[in-house]
Amino acid sequence: MRNTISAALLGTALSLAMAGIAMAQDKTVKIGSLSDQSGLYADLGGPGSTLAAQMAAEDSGLMAKGWKIDIISGDHQNKPDIGSNIARQWFDVDKVDTIVDVPNSGVALAVNNIVKEKNGVYINSGAATSDLTNAQCSPNTVHWTYDTYMLAHSTGQAMVKAGGDSWFFLTADYAFGAALERDTTEVVKASGGKVVGGVKHPLNTADFSSFLLQAQSSKAKVIGLANAGGDTTNSIKQAAEFGIAKGGQKLAALLLFITDVKAIGLETAQGLSFTETFYWDLNDKTRDFSKKFAARMKNGAPPSMVQAGVYAGLIHYFKALEALGSNPHDGAKIVAKMKELPTDDPLFGQGKIEANGRKIHPGYLFEVKKPSESKAPWDFYKLAGTVPADQAFTPIEKSTCALLKK
Amino acid sequence: MSINLQALSAQLLVGLINGSFYALLSLGLAVIFGMLNIINFAHGAVYMMGAFAAYFLLNIAGIGYWPALILAPLAVGLFGMVMERTMLKWIANLDHLYGLLLTFGLALIIQGVFQNYFGSSGLPYAIPDALKGGMNLGFMFLPIYRGWVVIFSLVICIATWFLIERTRLGAYLRAATENPTLVRAFGINVPLMITLTYGLGVGLAALAGVLSAPINQVRPLMGADLIIVVFAVVVIGGMGSIMGSIITGFALGIIEGLTKYFYPEASNTVVFVLMVLVLLVKPSGLTGRAA
Lengths: 406, 291
Description:
The complex is a heterodimer.
Chain A: H1 2-24, E1 28-35, H2 46-59, E2 68-75, H3 80-92, E3 98-101, H4 105-117, E4 121-124, E5 141-143, H5 148-161, E6 166-172, H6 175-190, E7 194-201, H7 209-218, E8 222-226, H8 229-241, E9 250-253, H9 258-264, H10 266-269, E10 273-276, H11 284-296, H12 305-324, H13 331-340, E11 343-345, E12 349-353, E13 359-360, E14 363-368, E15 381-387, H14 389-392
Parallel strand pairs in A: 1-2, 1-3, 3-4, 4-5, 6-7, 6-8, 8-9
Antiparallel strand pairs in A: 10-14, 11-12, 12-13, 14-15
Helix pairs in contact in A: 2-12, 3-4, 5-6, 8-9, 12-13
Chain B: H1 5-36, H2 43-59, H3 65-86, H4 96-118, E1 134-136, E2 141-143, H5 144-166, H6 168-178, H7 180-185, H8 190-212, H9 222-237, H10 242-262, H11 270-281
Antiparallel strand pairs in B: 1-2
């Protein structure tokens, strides 16, 4: 009898110890890809971002080492309240560790607060606002792919240098448009140009003719498009219709994705110059990944820079987890590790994450090819210039992030 | 704010262009509601199908804009008639709500299928060569294509109105909705007329889709974004009134255009504010009959 009891006790002690080991060796990760799954940003993020996350999990090699990686997706419908609710539910009920993608700066900023409150990890690829690594920066956030500062300083500066010294803005009326207009205005003024006017249009506008007429009558040399996705493609298409270019005014597409160029068509888009941090046809590594990615996409599209950012961000995240040995379920700790490790992935090359959460890599100035120059279905860009990594993003000493004041 | 007369007239003209689309779409809705008593929520989806039909005709069959202007509405109209015969017919005698829910569900399915295959960014469709370019009107640069849209839609709207209100066929139709049993007693094939009417309404939406393809992107959700505004137009004009829907369509396009000039941030909401006001003052709409 005594033996049985002691055996039972021993068994309990052992199982408790085992449980303890299991806790310390927790190798489960749950990642939520939160995006616009069906609206105007769905093609540049959406289901493609979920696929990118899936591919990152497969390519990380962690699953062969006994890790269990779950990837789920959610549709924020470009509404901050819906995005916040999903994020809360993911952390509280579904025990999600990490949220990725989140295009739409309005939603991105709302989710940023929740991830911080719940001590999760936030690898934002889709949103543009530079506030994520400045006023709104958080120890739980990495802003991977691009931001409004980068766009303003590359495309904006290049336009002013080429003689476009008076600007009129068409701005999407929410956090992103405001941030992009603000950052570009700074660049234009700093380079000796001036802003003669602007108009704020609601998100997801089909008809831009009224706004374009106002831009036309402003006589500004450059019409800056501080909008994205479907809004940008409609602006560009209709600007061609209203003869903006023939009137001597230039369009500055501050943010343009490969999916947008596809939607506009090369006939209308040719000659546009803009900045991205990733293009599928940059080098062998990007081509190789893009081929595998496109084969798994329903419409055979190569990855957009946002989807590439989701992949690369997660590859780095998995490296940090591997270095930690197990998943501590402590977002700030994991992000600190991510900042500590230098980044190196096939899509963005070598780089680093600054203390404010800003991922640093080069920016590329592209020009859209003429229809005659395009040899393959997605062969759209030619490289016009490279902004080196150390100049592409906000210099760390200029960042207003509170994490830097210590 | 000082009002620049030139800019103002330009905005009025631009408003008229958008109004043409509102008018064509709300006209189709009014025809369907007036004759079939169905609130056709699939209207945005068939509008989108019209644009896609034009795209397919061009890219698969090499058929250009002009034939598409006839072929696409015919094809989509035919699709609508099949829809009416196989589904809508069975709920014709039930409450409005059933038709609304059925067509709403159909719209979601159609849009979902297109989105699955074509994504959300859309496809390009070029302006036909004959209508490229523009002319300088002094106060604005008018793309010829936009001018064409206004004139063509006006013609179509008036022709439809004439067909229903002033011809013998239209008289049969109107009689058939008042008292189908009696009209049938005169030897008129009422179910066939109803099917054709639904086809006509759907065809009008598809025509608007073809017209808009060169201006906007050919996108799966192009109709979903527009249909809410068009419903507001129909509510303001009065459900079922043909002339009312045409006039309100153009008028609201103009009001929206003016809002874009004076306070652009509100341009997406002004139509709904008007709708609320009209509903408070005259619930049956400006020209509508009591429901």
